[in-house]
Amino acid sequence: MARVRVRAPGKINLVLHVGPPEASGYHDLVTVFQAVDVWETVTAEDALEFSLTVAGDVVLDEIPVDGNNLVLQAARAVASATGHTGSARLHIDKKVPVGGGMAGGSADAAAALVAVDALWQTNLSHDQMRSIAATLGSDVPFCLEGYTQVGRGRGHLLERVESEPFFWVAVPQPLHLSTPLVYQTLDNLRGELAPALPADPSQGLLDALVAGDAGALAGELVNDLAAPALSLAPQLQGVLDYGQQCGAVAGMISGSGPTCVFLTEDPDHQTHLLEKFLAEGHTAVRASSPVRGAHRSDREVPY
User: Which residues pair with 92 in a beta bridge?
Assistant: First the structure.
């Protein structure tokens, strides 16, 4: 097998509850991930040494192409786990906003795991794949799985829940927010008053997902990282306000930001809101959810 192409989805956190910091510096989470059809695509080919190139429709300046990139880390992790002695030439086609809270780097890693496993025919089990994914980053197991999942621990302990389709407009921002800094700012804002984590997402959220009820879902959206993101980038409030003025069912910061995402009623409403943002000079992306996780795309009709 000379070449394998795999794609993996970006994500939205419908709910993101963040617990107090642990001694390790990590925070326990209770989150609800939903995979969106904004795809990262990784192509892997046999090569004499590991290498990585990147292209795409988003700003690429901050993406490393050395060993700091999760794609190369993922490929080497598979080689290490399986004893494979070969290498791979890897290429990323990026569509998920970079550093935008939608897990583009994690999607790249998930896609790379599937790609090199298929390329090298190392036949990792699903459990082995998930175990490697968890060592690469908190969101990588979700990007591997896709659909709608409750995430616990650092977000890597997943439990699938059912959901009807929902329709979003994602509005990336021309700035970068460091995820560790957003978490640190949350801790500073809270001081000693970090609330206890809920055991589970609300029943209202789960009911809204099963019913496909955008209005009900709007009232259940929670992001504990919104306040620190807004304190670091107050201009995001203007984007959220504009979305509300244009009739979004709800608007929120995606994950640690700075991408803002807006819930709409249906595809027609989605198109209307997308056009409003584009007319105002924003970058805006149509996104629908939920979708499948990382999978071979060289065997299927284009999505």
Answer: 42, 54
